[in-house]
Amino acid sequence: MAHRQLSWLLHRGRGLASTIRTSYGFDYALPLRRSITYMPRPGDGTQRTVTLIPGDGIGPLVTSAVVEVMKAMHAPLSFERFEVSGKMDKVPDEVMASIRRNKVCLKGGLATPVGGGVSSLNVQLRKELDLYASLVHCFNLPGLRSRHENVDIVVIRENTEGEYAGLEHEVIPGVVESLKVITKFSSERIAKYAFEYAYLNNRKIVTAVHKANIMKLADGLFLESCREIAKKYPGIKYNEIIVDNCCMQLVARPEQFDVMVTPNLYGTLVANTAAGIAGGTGVMPGGNVGAEHAIFEQGASAGNVGSQRLVEQKRANPIAILLSSSMLLRHLRFPSFADRLDQAVMAVIREGTYRTKDIGGTSTTQEIVDAVIAKLD
């Protein structure tokens, strides 16, 4: 049920505003009405423990921002912190035990070495916890100028197979074979998640991204699975698009896309392209979810560990992970806290006084945090 809860709670705030709706579903010019539609179950207000992995680079800086804002809101969360680096051979056993126990994790970026024999810990986490669905929300933020308007794209990608399976070996010196694995089981469940998300969140179109004109068996199986699931959701329009044409269409007319479902590698490319179009990777939230566990982190991966200069100057953008932590709050059935956080973040962006360099300002991470806290109800 965890994926159903994430899907439903993620956009529960839509329609609460009095008159003006932004692409994120809220009205920040007028106060939101109090809702009585969320009736908590007994025990829903109990404090929850969240595993915290600050990560590498800017990770400790932006995750500390989340902890500070949660404390200011008196959110019913406590954090169990573990130091993990992408340079490690594997995720420590005590960290895996913590996530399995708490069910939810907030994570900064973990550096992934380029080349060499060290595998990505990000991928290890997703595979070991079977976090098969990655969700990245790329949308125009009110007050933040971008090249395109009316961008509101949700990229849902399969998180455990494809090229990310990491099945590579050297056949003979100088010849390397890399296997792309796609199964009907995983293709059907990611397609079902995408259509279920669209159905529960009043989305109208699901577009499958593929390269079946070349990879006729692997991507052909992915498309076949999407088509079968699409028949069960007649109220949702289903499209297909080849990945190279998809990238061109994204930079030309991104407003045509709604929910996009992809195999693993294509999803990374599409999500980062859509994020760049809508305002940058520093402001796009995301999460990885499976049947039992969920990890929330910056949505688009490009630059998620930042540069050493950002760390030294303490000017990393915390907006993406703050909005991801709002998703976390909804996942844990704390919607009123999520609404407050969303409103505060959007108000800061809309006013434009405090912004980090990547979105046209000179503010420090702490100045953004202080501004968000000042906007909390």
TrEMBL record:
<keyword id="KW-0479">Metal-binding</keyword>
<dbReference type="GO" id="GO:0005739">
    <property type="term" value="C:mitochondrion"/>
</dbReference>
<keyword id="KW-0496">Mitochondrion</keyword>
<dbReference type="GO" id="GO:0004449">
    <property type="term" value="F:isocitrate dehydrogenase (NAD+) activity"/>
</dbReference>
<comment type="function">
    <text>Performs an essential role in the oxidative function of the citric acid cycle.</text>
</comment>
<feature type="domain" description="Isopropylmalate dehydrogenase-like">
    <location>
        <begin position="49"/>
        <end position="372"/>
    </location>
</feature>
<keyword id="KW-0520">NAD</keyword>
<keyword id="KW-0809">Transit peptide</keyword>
<dbReference type="GO" id="GO:0006099">
    <property type="term" value="P:tricarboxylic acid cycle"/>
</dbReference>
<comment type="similarity">
    <text>Belongs to the isocitrate and isopropylmalate dehydrogenases family.</text>
</comment>
<keyword id="KW-0560">Oxidoreductase</keyword>
<dbReference type="InterPro" id="IPR024084">
    <property type="entry name" value="IsoPropMal-DH-like_dom"/>
</dbReference>
<protein>
    <recommendedName>
        <fullName>Isopropylmalate dehydrogenase-like domain-containing protein</fullName>
    </recommendedName>
</protein>
<dbReference type="Pfam" id="PF00180">
    <property type="entry name" value="Iso_dh"/>
</dbReference>
<dbReference type="GO" id="GO:0006102">
    <property type="term" value="P:isocitrate metabolic process"/>
</dbReference>
<keyword id="KW-0816">Tricarboxylic acid cycle</keyword>
<keyword id="KW-0464">Manganese</keyword>
<dbReference type="GO" id="GO:0046872">
    <property type="term" value="F:metal ion binding"/>
</dbReference>
<dbReference type="InterPro" id="IPR004434">
    <property type="entry name" value="Isocitrate_DH_NAD"/>
</dbReference>
<keyword id="KW-0460">Magnesium</keyword>
